[in-house]
Amino acid sequence: MIGRFWVAGLAGALCAAPALAAPDTAQDIRQWHAQQQRVLTLANRILVANAVTCKDVRPDYGYLPANMSPAAPAPLRAVWQEALGLDERPMAIIVLKDGPADKAGLRQGDHIMAVAGTAWGSDKERRQAFDTAMSTALPSGTLDLDIEHGGQTRAITLSGRPACKVDVVVVRRASANASTFGNRVEVDGGLERLLADDDELAFVLGHEIAHAVLEHSGPGKEADTRNHDRRAVIEREADVLGVRLMTRAGFDPAAAARANPKLAHANRGPISRLLDLHGAYMATNERTAFLASEGAKAKAEITPR
Ligand SMILES: [Zn+2]
Known about the structure:
By secondary structure, this protein is of the alpha+beta class. The chain folds into 2 domains: 6-162, Pdz3 Domain; 173-301, no CATH class. Helix content is 43%, strand content 20%.
């Protein structure tokens, strides 16, 4: 697929970045980057605050590395270089404020030139050795990195913090949806734009992260997500847990009921088809009332971490 490059997720799991097709401009890429930064900032709060309740946990280091694939065509390299200064070298394209990387002194645009003493190199062998060393180091909870900034190299140590093991990526689609498959959440660019209020966007993230935590989808579960009755149960469960996940992270659960009519309206219909895999499982007004009630319960039950 033209334009696909590879981004290591926040905790390093390799995941495909949004497929970036040929007409991308540097401005498009910068816009995607700003959206990804906002969504990751909110999602990360939820994933860290709820780590104690998640079955699958991994260390989070609070930064997103990326690098151009050596196989990428020249025009694509040029536009990513222009937009973010990205080339083949691993670079921190996002550093979350007050996260482990930020506290250790990593800054956006810094290159990661070695991990645990294994240096990155542009030849295939050294790239692979670096990737292997990174894969070994990531689950350990400690990252010893050599970073380069403005021609200066220095060593830093990042102490990971436990976070639920869910990848969250913004995809450049104009529609206002979000979807989850397994432990990968995709947020449409259109949804990020629709919900300018962080608490409202945090509700959608909470709902999708709840699908991942509850293992609602993934290989072998396609029949579940297509079955209307099962879907109604799944979506209700994701709403119930989602408002609690956001509340634990310090977001206002009352925002869930505020977000729902906007989502329903944006998806053009009297019934919300919203939130991922679709399924008109609850009329908009009914779901708004349900979310208001669950939001009030969550507020009474939960003290934010
Ligand atoms: Zn859902």
